[in-house]
C-alpha cells in the first residue's frame, strides 16, 4: 500500500471512524481527542453586528455511542496505529507487517495473462528508496508533486518514525497480488493508471485560509464549532482542537469578484488573522503561538474507477478531493480502505471468492464519494455567502442542512446498495426493522449470560476478518422457541461451520476481550456465532438448555462463556431483574427473534428468521457465494 | 520505600482503588480487568444437595462509577504503574523516580537530635544489593523470611523488570527525610522498629487452600463470585479472573476438630481439587491448566503504631494481615500509601506543615485497619460454617452481611475522623448534605461551560498533590448570587492563592486533560479552583460575567476554559437545554450553593458557604493550619 502523508495535521474524527478504530482496540483515540459537542451559528443582526443565532449539537442523537466529532493530531493517530500493528506482530506465528518510509513507486504494470490466476502475483511495481534530504531536493526541482497546500509545516513532535529499510537510491521490484494507492490528491498511482482514472469535477476560484493557533480572544464560542458569516469580511469557521489550539477556516475571496487579484501564493498568516479579526469584530482575536497555516482553493472532484482489473486500487484523496471544512477527508478515506482491507486480506488467505468480493469495493465506495462531493459542494456554497441578503435568506437553509448533515458526516448513514455482499430479502422484511442490510450493524448494550457483565456488542465483534451470525433467539424460556434456536444452532455447528476452512486471527487485537488460545491452536472458524436472547437469566442454564454451538467445548479450556448474552442491561437486585430489551432498538420481535449476518466490516449482510427451514438455505447460499469451501 | 512482592498474583480491585488509579490516569486497569458483577450463594437443600439460594450484585448501587470488583494479574498492574512513573519522568524538569529491585535493608536508625529539623535527613538506612540467585540461596538457608504462602510460583509473563542499580553484595548508606516499610506480613522494617510495633491479634487453626485454574466444569455460576457452603466437604468461594482463570478458596479444615492432623505443608493441588469436587458435587470440576496454588492459615492481626516519630512508616500487610477472601489486601494497602504519599511529598517540597499533617496518617489509617480486621473475622466465620444446622441458621445473616459489606469493601465508606485535615463545622451542617468532611468527594458528571463537553468531575481532579476549592456557585444568573460568587472569587484569586508558594506538578499525569504549559512556567498554584454553577448556559458569558479567578488569563494562552462547569448533563437541543442538576447528588441548594474544600487525596476537608464573610476566614484558617505560607 502506497500512502502519502498529509500536510494538514488536524484530524476530525467522526462517529463511524471512532467505531472502526475501537473495533481494532484503539479506544484511546476517543479518550484523548477533543470532543466537539456543539456548533453555533453567528449571523449579522440588522445593524451588521454578529450575534449567536443558534446553538445545536454537533451530531445527531442516538446515531452512535461516539456521539460527537473528536479532533486530534494526525501524528498521534498514526502513532497509535503503528503501536497496534507492532503489538499484533509480537504474537507468535502472526505475520509481521512492515511499515517503510521514504519510498516512491517509479513504475507499475499488470501482467494481464495472470489476472485470473488467484495464486499468481500479476502486479509489478518498482519502488525507489530515497532519504529525507532528497525529498526536499526533488520538490524544489519539481520532480515530486507539491502538496495542494501551501504550508508552514509547523514543528511536529508527534510525527511517527517509519522504517528505512534500504539505502537511498536503491530500487526494488515487488510482485504483488494486490496494490493500493492511497497517495493523496496528486496520486502518482492514479496518474500511472492512465487517462481514464483522471478525477472529474471542478475547482472553484474562491480562496480560503486555514490556520491552527492558540487564540487570545474574547469571542465566547471559541471552544465550540462556530460558523460565523459576516457582512464585514466574509465567513469563518472555527473548530476547537487539543492543547488549546483552534483551527480557523477563513474565507479570503469569494471567487466571484472579477477584480480580485489574490492568488494562493500571496497569502500570509498576517493576512489570515487580519481577515479573522474583521469577521469577528467587535470581538477581538489574536495569537502569539501559531502551529500551522495554509491557503487553499476548493477542488471537488472524484474518479470513475476505484480499481483496475480488481488488482490495483485507489483510495482516499487519490480518488476524491474536496474541501476540508466538513471534516470528512480522513474519515471517508479510512472508510475506503476499511471496506477494501478485509476483502484483500481474506482473498490473499484464499478464504473468499475474489471475483465475487473484490468488485464490491468500487461499487460501494464510488457511491459514497459521489455523495461526499455533492455534500461538500452544498456546504461550501452555504458557508460562502457574502451579502447580508444572501446570508439572511440562506440562514434557515444552512441550519436545516446542518441538522440533517450528521447522517452523512458521521458516516453512520452510509447504506451500501444491494449486491452479493448485501442481500435484501423481501421475506425478511420486518424481521429486524432497524437492522437493514447495507447499513452498519449498530452496537447495543447486552449482558453476558454467565457473568452478568454488560458489554457493547461492538466490543465483542473486533475487526479480525471474521463474519458473524448474530442469533437473536427471542424468548428461549419458551420450549418451542428454544427448540428452534437449538435446531438452528446444531445446523450451524455441525453443517455450516465445517463447510469452510478456519482463519488464523491475531488474538491480541483487543485486550478487553481476554481471548485465550493455546499456541498450537491458532485457527478459529471464519464465522463466529453469538446468541442474544430475551429469556430471564435464572430460567436458563446454558450448559443444560442451549446447544453447544453457542458455547463451544474445549477439552482444556472447558465451556465457552463469551458468546451468549441477554438482550438487556440487567440490574440484578436480589432475585428481581430489571430489564429493558435491546430488541426494540434493532426492531426485532422479542419472542420470535431474527438472525442477522454481519460482514467482517460490521455491515449487515442479510437478515433472516430463526426457525424457518428455508432460512438455513439462505444462510448457506450467502456464505457459499462468498467463501471458498473446504471441498474446493 | 521498601516493598516486597507478594506471591499471590491475583488482585481484586475495589471501587475506591479504581478511582485512585484513575486519578493517576491509569484507567486501563478498569478496562482490562475482569468485572465481577454478581455474587451467588449456594446452600444445601433439605437433601443436602447444593442449590443457588440467591443472586445479588457484587457491589452497592450508586457508590461509584466503578460499580463492581475487577480482577487482574498483579504483574499487569505493576507494569502499568511502572509505565506511568516512567512517563512522568520524561517530562523536562520533573524529578526522575528510580525503581530498584533486589535490595534489602540491613540496618535502620533515626538520629533523634534531627527529628525537629525539617531540612535534615534523620533516617539512616543501610541497603544491601543482591542478585536473584542469592535470594533463593538465602531463602534455603532461612536468612530471608519465607512468604506466609507456600506457593508453586506459576510462570508469570507479566512480571515487571526492576532496575538493578548496583553490584550484588554492595552496601549503601541512605540518609532520608522519610522512610516507608511496605514489606509485607513478615516486614523487616517492622521488626527493626522493635517490640512495640509487633502486630497483635490471632491466628486461627483453620487451613484454607487457594488455587488459580482454568476450570473444566458444569457448575453454572463459575463466572460469578460464588460462595458455596456444603455439608459434604466444607465451604468454597470462587472468583472469576482474567483469561478464563478462576480463583478458588477452599476450606480444608475448620480448625475445630481436634483429631485433624493436617498441616499446611501437607497440602497438594490434588487435595485442593478433590475437596472442591466434594463441595461442588453433584456438579463436576477439574482442570488441565493450573496457574498457581497455595495453602494458608487465617492470621488476623494489626499494629498499634503506623509510624515512628513521624519519620518511619509502616503500610499495607506490614501493619495489618488478614484473610484474602474479602479481596481487601491490595486495596487497603494501596489506600494506606495513597493517604501517606501526598503528605510526605508535600512535606519534602516544603509546602505543608509536617508536624500538623504527618501524624494524621497513623490516626486515619489505623482505624481503617481495625475495621478491616473486624470485618474479616466476621466474614471468615460466616463462610466457615460446617454443619447443616449452622449453615441454615447463618444463611440470612450471611446475606445481610454481604449486602452491607460493599460500604466497607469498596473503600467508599471510609470516613476519616475529625482532625486538622477534616473540619466538621456545625454551621456548615446541611450546606452539602451528602458531601461530608472525612469522606471522599464523589464524582458527578458536569458540563464544561465553554465547550459543552461532559466530564466526570474526578477526571478534572487528578492526584497531582494539589488542594481544590470546589465553588458550587448556585444560580449565578441571579445578580446577587453572582455578586457573592465573584466577591469570593476575587478574594480567592487576590488574597488566598498568593499566600502560599506554588507547586511544580507533572503535566502529563493524565493525557485526557490536555494541560498546556510552557516549559518556562512549570509552577502552578497549590490550590486549584473550580466553579460549578446551576445557571442556564446561554444566560452567562463567563468572560463578561464571572470573576477571572475562575478562568485565569495567560498572555500567551488567552483565557482558561477548563474550570467553569454547569451542574448538569446538558443535552443541547436547539435552544432548549435539558438539565438535571448534580447539586441534588451532593445535597447542595441549587440557588445558594456551597463551597467544598478537597484534600489532595480527594477527601472532603471542609464545607462552608459561598456568600458569608466568615466563610473566607474559615477557608483561610484551614489552609493556614496546613500549608507553609510564603512569608515563613
UniProtKB/TrEMBL annotation, chains A, B:
CDD domains: PHOX_C. GO terms for molecular function: FAD binding; oxidoreductase activity, acting on paired donors, with incorporation or reduction of molecular oxygen, NAD(P)H as one donor, and incorporation of one atom of oxygen. Residues 13-375 form the FAD-binding domain. Gene3D superfamilies: 3.40.30.20, D-Amino Acid Oxidase, subunit A, domain 2 (3.30.9.10), FAD/NAD(P)-binding domain (3.50.50.60). Residues 414-627 form the Phenol hydroxylase-like C-terminal dimerisation domain. Pfam families: FAD_binding_3, Phe_hydrox_dim. InterPro entries: FAD-bd, FAD/NAD-bd_sf, Phe_hydrox_C_dim_dom, PHOX_C_sf, RIFMO-like, Thioredoxin-like_sf. Keywords: FAD, Flavoprotein, Oxidoreductase. Belongs to the PheA/TfdB FAD monooxygenase family. This is Phenol 2-monooxygenase. It comes from Trichoderma simmonsii.
Amino acid at each position: 500500500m502506497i500512502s502519502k502523508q498529509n500536510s494538514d495535521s488536524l484530524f476530525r474524527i467522526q462517529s463511524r471512524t471512532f467505531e472502526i478504530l475501537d473495533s481494532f482496540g484503539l479506544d484511546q483515540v476517543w479518550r484523548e481527542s477533543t470532543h466537539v459537542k456543539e456548533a453555533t451559528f453567528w449571523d449579522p443582526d440588522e445593524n451588521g453586528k454578529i450575534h449567536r443565532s443558534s446553538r445545536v449539537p454537533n451530531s445527531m442523537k442516538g446515531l452512535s455511542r461516539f456521539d460527537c466529532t473528536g479532533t486530534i493530531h494526525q501524528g498521534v493517530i498514526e502513532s497509535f496505529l503503528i503501536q497496534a500493528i507492532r503489538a499484533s506482530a509480537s504474537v507468535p506465528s502472526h505475520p509481521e507487517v512492515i511499515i517503510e518510509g521514504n519510498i516512491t513507486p517509479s513504475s507499475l504494470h499488470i501482467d494481464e495473462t495472470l489476472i485470473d490466476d488467484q495464486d499468481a502475483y500479476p502486479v509489478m511495481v518498482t519502488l525507489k528508496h530515497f532519504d529525507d534530504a532528497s525529498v526536499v531536493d526533488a520538490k524544489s526541482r519539481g520532480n515530486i508533486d507539491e502538496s495542494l497546500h501551501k504550508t508552514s509545516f509547523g514543528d511536529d513532535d508527534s510525527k511517527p518514525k517509519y522504517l528505512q529499510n534500504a539505502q537511498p537510491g536503491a530500487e526494488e521490484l515487488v510482485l504483488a497480488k494486490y496494490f493500493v494507492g492511497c497517495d493523496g490528491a496528486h496520486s502518482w498511482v492514479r496518474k500511472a493508471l492512465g487517462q481514464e482514472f483522471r478525477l472529474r469535477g471542478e475547482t472553484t476560484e474562491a480562496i480560503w485560509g486555514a490556520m491552527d493557533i492558540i487564540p487570545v480572544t474574547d469571542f465566547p464560542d471559541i471552544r465550540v464549532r462556530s460558523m460565523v458569516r459576516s457582512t464585514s469580511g466574509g465567513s469563518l469557521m472555527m473548530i476547537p482542537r487539543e492543547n488549546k489550539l483552534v483551527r480557523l477556516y477563513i474565507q479570503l475571496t469569494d471567487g466571484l469578484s472579477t477584480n480580485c487579484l489574490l492568488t494562493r501564493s500571496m497569502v500570509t498568516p498576517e493576512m489570515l488573522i487580519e481577515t479573522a479579526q474583521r469577521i469577528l469584530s467587535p470581538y477581538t482575536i489574536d495569537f502569539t503561538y501559531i502551529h500551522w497555516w495554509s491557503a487553499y482553493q476548493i477542488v471537488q472532484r472524484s474518479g470513475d474507477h476505484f480499481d483496475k482489473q480488481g488488482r490495483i486500487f485507489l483510495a482516499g484523496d487519490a480518488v476524491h478531493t474536496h474541501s476540508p471544512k466538513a471534516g470528512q477527508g480522513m474519515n471517508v478515506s479510512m472508510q475506503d480502505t476499511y471496506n477494501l482491507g478485509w476483502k484483500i486480506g481474506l482473498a490473499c488467505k484464499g478464504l473468499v471468492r475474489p471475483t465475487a468480493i473484490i468488485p464490491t469495493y468500487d461499487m460501494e465506495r464510488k457511491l459514497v464519494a459521489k455523495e461526499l462531493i455533492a455534500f461538500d459542494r452544498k456546504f461550501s456554497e452555504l458557508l460562502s455567502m457574502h451579502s447580508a441578503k444572501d446570508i439572511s435568506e440562506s440562514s434557515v437553509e444552512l441550519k436545516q442542512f446542518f441538522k440533517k448533515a450528521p447522517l452523512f458526516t458521521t458516516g453512520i448513514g452510509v447504506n451500501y446498495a444491494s449486491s452479493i455482499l448485501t442481500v435484501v430479502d423481501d421475506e425478511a422484511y420486518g424481521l429486524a426493522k432497524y437492522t437493514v442490510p447495507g447499513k452498519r450493524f449498530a452496537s447495543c448494550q447486552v449482558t453476558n449470560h454467565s457473568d452478568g457483565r454488560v458489554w457493547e456488542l461492538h466490543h465483542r465483534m473486533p475487526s479480525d476478518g471474521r463474519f458473524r451470525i448474530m442469533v437473536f433467539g427471542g424468548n428461549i424460556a419458551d420450549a418451542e422457541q428454544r427448540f428452534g434456536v437449538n435446531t438452528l444452532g446444531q445446523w450451524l455447528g455441525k453443517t455450516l461451520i465445517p463447510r469452510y476452512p478456519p482463519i488464523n486471527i491475531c488474538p491480541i487485537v483487543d485486550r478487553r476481550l481476554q481471548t485465550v488460545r493455546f499456541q498450537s491452536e491458532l485457527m478459529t472458524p471464519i464465522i463466529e456465532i453469538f446468541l442474544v436472547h430475551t429469556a430471564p437469566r435464572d430460567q436458563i442454564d446454558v450448559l443444560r438448555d442451549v446447544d453447544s454451538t453457542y458455547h463451544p467445548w474445549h477439552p482444556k479450556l472447558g465451556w465457552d462463556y463469551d458468546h451468549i448474552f441477554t438482550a438487556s442491561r440487567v440490574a440484578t437486585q436480589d432475585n428481581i431483574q430489571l430489564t429493558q430489551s435491546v430488541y426494540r432498538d434493532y426492531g426485532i420481535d422479542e419472542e420470535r427473534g431474527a438472525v442477522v449476518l454481519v460482514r467482517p466490516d460490521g455491515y449487515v449482510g442479510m437478515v433472516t428468521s430463526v426457525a424457518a427451514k428455508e432460512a438455513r438455505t439462505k444462510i448457506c447460499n450467502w456464505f457459499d457465494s462468498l467463501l471458498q469451501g473446504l471441498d474446493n
